[in-house]
Amino acid sequence: MLQFPLWRRVLVVGLVVLGLVYAAPNLFYSRVEAHNDAVAAIEKSGSTPELEAARAGWPDWLPSRLVNLGLDLRGGAHLLAEVQVEDVYDRRLDALWPEVRDGLRAQRDTVGAIRRIDAPKGQLKVRIEKPEAMDAALAAVRALATPVVSLTGAGSDNIVVTGAGDTITIELSEAEKQATDDRTIQQALEIIRRRVDEVGTREPTIQRQGKNRILIQVPGLGSAAELKALIGTTAQLTFNPVVNRTTDPNVRPGPRQVVYPSLDEPGVYYVLEATPVVTGEELNNAQPSFDQNGRPAVSFQFNVSGARKFGQYTAENVGAPFAIVLDGKVISAPRINEPIPGGSGIITGNFTIEESTKLAVLLRAGALPADLTFLEERTIGPELGADSIEAGKIASIVAFAGVLIYMALTYGLFGIFANIALILNVGMMFGLLSAIGATLTLPGIAGIVLTIGMAVDANVLIYERIREELAA
């Protein structure tokens, strides 16, 4: 008879017990889920009697990880979005303009006066006064080029500079466009993930598809429209100098100026300088709060760079108004009464508490680098998920019971041994899924049913071989 060392038997028994302990919370799914939600809420915002009662529903000393239910089982929202990466090219060129301007101004005696002129999307055009000095102007602009930071674009410059007549044309190189596309998609993925995580949902699926598409699936969320509203808002916050305030909707802005409507004052428009003093990317934190009149607002804090620029601007422009712009609308345009060196402030407006909380979430998560176009949206109701779970339960129970009965009737005592091993196998499988936080979907249930059948294959082969030997 085979004898196994004691340490091996202890190891096997220990692993089996550990797997079953980790699988046990799935037998009390609703109770453990409420416990986990209560623990997370207590850590985030403090304890309440209701949260403590929910937390007490499952012992803290026992494992509380669950097998997460996928979108097809739990219900939720599904979106397929396309990132408009071309928008980023124009912003990159706008950000490059001050460097180009300063570089050409250094050659003013040679190239004469310079002026930025209108250009097609994806291009920056500059007109110089002395076309005969085009070579010197091109050399000054090309000196601003930097190597592309990517493996595929190694050895390439980030811009392509050409000249014709008295006009210099600047474009991003193909290598830089590809690197920009990759960075934009990765940044969008991270920001979408942060926004979804702020809502408190578990196990969302957020992944890149193809060149510039992102798949978002959030189990348990009420509707695709809710997810779309959360993700699709760009939340681009900027602080721009105010040029003029007007009620004329047809006012024509000057060069490098923009016109934005007021959010709170219908019929009021602001002419602003297009280049912001600071942007939402330089925010360290944003929290819902209340203004001095008790109305919902959002308080914010800049990082070191943003605080320095904000403090310097307010010190140099005391008495002048500046606009707080969110997604192309002026939230407010306060007058600078004194320098603000601390880098903190408050955004007021006609917000509800829900709107101020949502705005704070969006600002904390950051602005999307580009607009999203939603190509596909779907809401899977919880009743459909419940039907799927019920169908999966029936399929698993029927398969499990069928195998157990067949093995017991066909092989007797040895069949019972095989059944015990099969039960432990399934228990350890769920224990492993719980331990690693795996997500269970309908195909996953089909895989478990298939595993139940395959798990006894070895026993069947061994028992049939024994029968053949005994018959011989």
Domain unit count:
4
C-alpha Rg (nearest Å): 32 Å
- The CATH class label of the largest domain is Alpha Beta
Report helical residue fraction: 40-55%
Low-confidence stretches: none
Query: How many separate helices?
Result: 15
Oligomer: single chain
The overall average pLDDT, rounded, is: 83
What name does the CATH topology of the largest domain carry? Gyrase A, domain 2
Task: Report the portion of residues in β strands.
Answer: 15-25%
Question: Which shape, going by the Cα principal axes?
Answer: elongated
Let me know the largest β-sheet. 6 strands, antiparallel
* CATH architectural type of the largest domain: 2-Layer Sandwich
Computed structural class? alpha+beta
Q: Terminal Cα separation, in Å?
A: 22 Å
Number of strands: 19
Can you walk through the features of this model?
The protein starts with 5 loop residues before the first helix and ends with a helix. The strands form five sheets. Strands 9, 10, 11, 12, 15 and 16 form a six-stranded antiparallel beta sheet that branches. A four-stranded antiparallel beta sheet has the order 7-8-2-18. With 472 residues, the chain is an alpha+beta fold. It has four domains: 21-66, no CATH class; 86-173, Gyrase A, domain 2 (2-Layer Sandwich), CATH 3.30.1360; 237-374, Gyrase A, domain 2; 385-472, no CATH class. It has helices at residues 6-23, 29-45, 49-55, 71-74, 86-105, 108-111, 134-142, 174-199, 224-232, 304-316, 353-365, 382-411, 413-435, 442-455, 457-471, and strands at residues 68-69, 76-83, 114-117, 124-128, 159-164, 167-172, 205-209, 213-219, 237-246, 257-261, 269-273, 278-279, 283-290, 296-302, 322-326, 329-332, 344-348, 372-380, 439-440. Helices cover 47% and strands 22% of the residues. The chain is built from 15 helices and 19 strands. The radius of gyration is 32 Å and the shape is elongated.
